[in-house]
Specification:
This protein has 494 residues and is α/β, with parallel strands linked by helices. It contains 18 helices and 12 strands. The longest helix has 34 residues. The radius of gyration is 26 Å and the shape is elongated. It is a multi-pass membrane protein. One of its GO terms (molecular function) is transmembrane transporter activity.
Length: 494
Amino acid sequence: MKLPKKTMMAIMTSLLAFLTILLTVMPVKAADQVTNNSVMQRIKQKKELVVGTSADYPPLEFTASEAGQTKYVGVDIELAKDIAKDLNAKLVIKNMSFDSLLVALETGKVDMVISAMTPSPERKKSVDFSKIYYHPSGEFFLINKKDQAKYRKIADFKGQTLGAQTGSIQYELIQKQMKSSKVKGLSKINNLVLAVQSGKVAGVVVEELIAKAYAQNNHNLLAVQSDLKEAQAGNAVAIAKGQKDLVAAVNKTIARVQKEQLIEHKYLPAAAKYMKTAKKNNSMMKYAPYFVKGVGYTVEITIFSVLIGVILGTLFALMRLSKIKLVHWLAVAYIEFIRGTPQMVQILFVYFGVGYFVSNLSAVVAGIIAIGLNSGAYVAEDIRSGIGSIAKGQTEAARSLGLSQAKTYRYVIIPQALKNIWPALGNEFITLLKDSSLVSVIGVSELMYQTQLVQTSTYRGVLPLAIAMVIYFIMTFTLTRLLNYFEKRMKHND
């Protein structure tokens, strides 16, 4: 049944009004939470300090493998340990994309951010910063060694594309000082390095230590000092607005660290040691537990998301077929809205947006809910088309035999519709398994997330991705065979 244009306009207007109210209330609620229950109080109550970082920036923050377990290491991680120690709290690291860190801080997912972050004027509008704990020595171009005679300064990159981490100072520097060049932003340094190696970008702009770290661990890359001019303040700890007591405590730790010169004499040497170890022992077999763990989370997310998708899909399919206008309109609004917005945006909204109201919502649960909600909209349309393919005579015959409408759908219509739509449902399940990789953006340890950890730990870009592709293929191929088996069983029972 096609809805009148006025009805569709009313539905869309109502949805926009609801979202406007929601987005207006959420920041107010967050501000209330900060005022009424300070971050410092929460840390003292839980005896736990949650620090957000993007662990792909050696030697400041990166990962290492010890006994098959992921260990977060680097200068920033060591600083986080000292801050936690001074606060008498257990340190918990949340690893996520760099451009999601401040959102996580503002929504209370983390207590502070320590991730080589510069306190720029734009960032100061949203969050507060500690005093500077580390002054970078300058920006470098990370290029392919074969291009060392070609790219040495800004003018050499005219008409070329350079890479930088999304939301970083380096991204802004390219935009402002390299107007004759294009900039490509990616959230992970691993992917930027891969882009350099594959020729997608001519070079990447990163801090000196990071450029040299990747160049020393990859003989195909070269770190070249750039002629970019900057007045970089340095790196500081980001803390939510209004947390003066926490800022003071962090500044006290930083003052001690600087007085004892821990960064130069302890933090950097320890990071260099891990980098050398990774260079010597970066066999993929060593990282097999990473991929196994990733597969486990991927399967878990897929199973629960399928259950949510099938239940919601069936419900909204029946609602859309309902003759009750309000019920019908609600189903249409849900399906059209979900299908009309990107799935990654939905994942971020559920994790960060709903997090305003459900503070203990984990990334795994948020990912399952978001993917399940998305799948429900598509499953609903599959089921609706399947029901529509059943001849009206089937319904009439069932009702003439005394079956109620509910029993008619349960025993007559749905079983026949399921056989018709099984291939389409199978495709949806396979797509859902692959789309589970999107939840890596909020730090869920599924296969893609673990692959990125392996890239960071081994300084290899292509091989971990190749292994992940093979694993995904094995999983999807196995699922396809299983779906085909059930499809044959259905046909055999006809």
